[in-house]
Amino acid sequence: QEQLVESGGGLVQPGGSLRLSCVASVASTFAFSAYTLAWYRRAPGKERELVASISRPDRTNYGDPVKGRFSISRDNAKNTVYLQMNSLKPEDTAIYYCNAYLNPALNFWGPGTQVTVST
């Protein structure tokens, strides 16, 4: 069973930056490089939304609220995906989840990491 573990969340002031990391623990022949990796978030009282995704060969996609401020990247050698978040706003406050998707049977989620943007 593959596992994803996020880190890097925390409390930051508006205008600040954070970098989230998500490491995949490989329990089998997990072809990390073949997966589409994504970050989602869920804010209090709101639906889960896509923040950013990166697929082969490193094609990226961003949700409209974060375009120009966030950047997703991956390091296949380290089984890690990153989310660099700049110019953070209070409305970015949410639990951020890492996702690795290959097909409906191979779709994994991390437990989430809290990001709070506040003074």
Can you put this structure into words, describing what you see?
By secondary structure, the protein is mostly beta strands. Helix content is 0%, strand content 55%. The protein has strands spanning 3-7, 10-12, 18-25, 36-42, 49-55, 59-62, 70-75, 80-85, 94-103, 106-109, 113-117. A hairpin with a 2-residue loop joins strand 9 (94-103) and strand 10.
Number of helices: 0
Rounded to the nearest angstrom, the distance between the terminal CA atoms is 40 Å
Q: Classify the secondary structure makeup into a structural class.
A: mainly beta
Query: What oligomeric assembly is this protein in?
Result: single chain
Total count of strands: 11
Our estimate of the beta-strand percent is over 45%
Poorly predicted residue ranges: none
| Helix content percent band | under 10%
What pattern of helices and strands is seen along the backbone? EEEEEEEEEEE
Question: What's the gyration radius in Å?
Answer: 14 Å
Instruction: Please state the average pLDDT score.
Output: 93
* Biggest sheet architecture: 7 strands, mixed
Q: Overall 3D geometry?
A: globular
